[in-house]
């Protein structure tokens, strides 16, 4: 049963990295989701899609996958490019006025 191990990115709704520190192990879907004939909701018989395991380090997650005999794929972390330093006062500099932006 294939799993993927990754570190989630921080969401746009948070300024800190609170939930982005832990490594997550998720099972890949074994069966596609199907629409329920009565209600039209999507569902599946595969209950492993609901399982998300969190680990403190990548090595812990890999060790768990090896111990359980799972096929795993480790996704590399996205490299964050630092922003250029900005100064709020530069928005009001008199020598940087642009005409026609009113």
From TrEMBL:
- Keyword Cytoplasm in record: no
Compartment(s) where it occurs, according to its Swiss-Prot or TrEMBL record: Membrane
List the InterPro entries: NADH_UbQ_FeS_4_mit-like, NDUFS4-like_sf
User: Which domain of life does the protein's organism represent?
Assistant: Bacteria
Q: Which GO terms describe its cellular component?
A: membrane
Keyword match Heme: no
Q: Which UniProt keywords apply?
A: Electron transport, Membrane, Respiratory chain, Transit peptide, Transport
GO BP terms in the entry: electron transport chain
- TM stretches of this protein: none
> By its UniProt entry, which PANTHER family does this protein fall under?
NADH DEHYDROGENASE [UBIQUINONE] IRON-SULFUR PROTEIN 4, MITOCHONDRIAL, NADH-UBIQUINONE OXIDOREDUCTASE
Q: What is this protein called?
A: Oxidoreductase
Q: What species was this sequence derived from?
A: Magnetospirillum moscoviense
**Organism ancestry:** Bacteria, Pseudomonadati, Pseudomonadota, Alphaproteobacteria, Rhodospirillales
């Amino acid at each position: 049963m294939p799993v993927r191990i990754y570190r989630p990115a921080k969401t746009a709704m948070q300024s800190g990295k609170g939930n982005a520190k832990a490594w997550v192990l998720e099972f890949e879907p074994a069966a596609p989701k199907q629409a329920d004939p009565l209600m039209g909701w999507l569902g599946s018989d595969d209950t492993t899609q609901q399982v998300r395991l969190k680990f403190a380090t990548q090595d812990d997650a890999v060790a768990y996958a090896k111990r359980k005999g799972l096929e795993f794929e480790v996704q590399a972390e996205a490299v964050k490019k630092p922003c250029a330093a900005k100064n709020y006062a530069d928005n009001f500099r008199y020598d940087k006025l642009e005409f026609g932006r009113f």
